[in-house]
Amino acid sequence: MASKSRVFFLDLGMSNMKDNMLAGRIMSCNGDGSDLKPLVEGIGTAPDGLGIDLDNKHIYYTNMGMPSTDSGFISRVDMNGMNDTVIIPQGITWTPKQLTLEPTTKQLYWSDREGMRVFRANFDGSNVEMLVRAGQGDADRKDARNWCVGIAVDIKRGRIYWTQKGPSKGNQGRLFTADINLPEGETPDNRSDKKILLDHLPEPIDLDLDAEENVLYLTDRGDPPFGNTVSSIDLNNPAKIQKRTLVKKLHEAIGLALDVENKQMYVTDLLGGLYRANMDGSEEKVLFPDLGDLTGVAVIAAGPPRCSSSACNDDLCVH
């Protein structure tokens, strides 16, 4: 039986506020948009980024909290929506944004917007490490060019990639890279291997990496024609890094997830759209035009059937 993908995504919950509280959700559907269902509802802490630990059937998601305060945290929940628990508590990361999981080392990586940092930690939340710090204090925090938002990890080549978004529609966004480990004797503030790959971007947000092809994918807010797009960046020629626009006319583009096995990508935007396209940008399809205020997205290319029960409630079964 052919594999079929399962998509997981976040609704920030601004459109469905209850008693002046956000009503965020973790949602899930098949790759064609069928079997849409909520997994977790009533998240009032501004969920933004998520990742899937398939081996242990966990969903990790970031909670931005109140961006004006140091109130962000990271949670983990079972894939059936049960056992929601905090693994990175408040006081460590200010406004955690995109999150990605590295299964071989069992580590999670995330960007911290108003915290102006990039972090990693073990899957259980232990051994938190700061890898990058773009600024410190309230003065630096007011400069959106310091705000770290997107994150991607290339364990094969030992690289991390992150975006610093810049002001809204300001064309001051930047894409950075550095070694996956902090150079010996250096600090997150002054690491010598930090490099700008692209600058003057409209408003770069989330990232995902096709590690086999060494091609990075990027969502960008900001004004058309280069903003509200999905682009690819071929990393194979470091002397000639260029951005190629694949998808246009999104509505405040946010989340991005590659289904490399099936050569497809999934994109969310803040106006509630969930989209699917081929990885070259062709055959774009609107799976849902308005599901709320969508942020992070992740996808799993499911393998063969895991059970034969028609009553199974496992999202990854394909019976």
Please characterize this protein's 3D structure.
- The protein has 319 residues and is mainly beta.
- It has one helix and 24 strands.
- It has one helix at residues 137-141, and strands at residues 5-11, 24-30, 37-43, 47-53, 58-63, 73-78, 85-88, 96-102, 107-112, 117-122, 129-133, 148-154, 159-164, 173-179, 195-201, 204-210, 215-220, 229-234, 243-247, 253-259, 264-269, 274-278, 285-288, 294-301.
- The protein has a four-stranded antiparallel sheet, with no helix packed on it. Strands 4-5-6-7 form a four-stranded antiparallel sheet, with no helix packed on it. Strands 8-9-10-11 form a four-stranded antiparallel sheet, with no helix packed on it.
- β20 (253-259) and β21 (264-269) form a beta hairpin.
- The protein is globular, with a radius of gyration of 18 Å.
- The relative contact order is 0.15.
First-residue to last-residue Cα separation: 9 Å
Coarse structural class: mainly beta
Helix percent band: under 10%
Order of helical and strand elements = EEEEEEEEEEEHEEEEEEEEEEEEE
Average pLDDT rating: 93
Shape: globular
Strand order of the largest sheet: 3-2-1-24
Tell me the number of helical segments per DSSP (H or I, 4 or more residues long).
1
Q: List the uncertain runs.
A: none
| Cα-based radius of gyration, to the nearest Å | 18 Å
Largest sheet: 4 strands, antiparallel
